[in-house]
Amino acid sequence: MDWEVHQNPERLVKTFRFKNFLEALAFAQRVGELAERENHHPRLTVEWGRVTVEWWTHSQGGITEKDREMARLTDLLLG
């Protein structure tokens, strides 16, 4: 998995790049739908041509297996 681990709090972070804002926004929407379906919600930052997704479990104060699974499922949204 090519996600970075950041600290304070410990979390999985990845920036996805797109051709324009609309493609980035559409991807963020798919991540949001995944999050609702799985009842586990990331931090999303949407900018022109990119979306940064951060997964961690607030109640655990860091990364759990659920976060790793959500990162894997997020990657599949590109395919």
UniProtKB/TrEMBL annotation:
* The UniProt record lists the keyword Lyase: yes
What EC number(s) are associated with this protein in UniProt? 4.2.1.96
The first-level EC class reads lyase
Gene3D superfamilies xrefs: Transcriptional coactivator/pterin dehydratase (3.30.1360.20)
Q: Which residues form a coiled coil?
A: none
What does it catalyze?
(4aS,6R)-4a-hydroxy-L-erythro-5,6,7,8-tetrahydrobiopterin = (6R)-L-erythro-6,7-dihydrobiopterin + H2O
Superkingdom, taxonomy of origin: Bacteria
Under CDD domains, the record lists: PCD_DCoH_subfamily_a
Listed A to Z, the keywords are: Lyase
Q: State the family it belongs to.
A: Belongs to the pterin-4-alpha-carbinolamine dehydratase family.
Name this protein carries in UniProt? 4a-hydroxytetrahydrobiopterin dehydratase
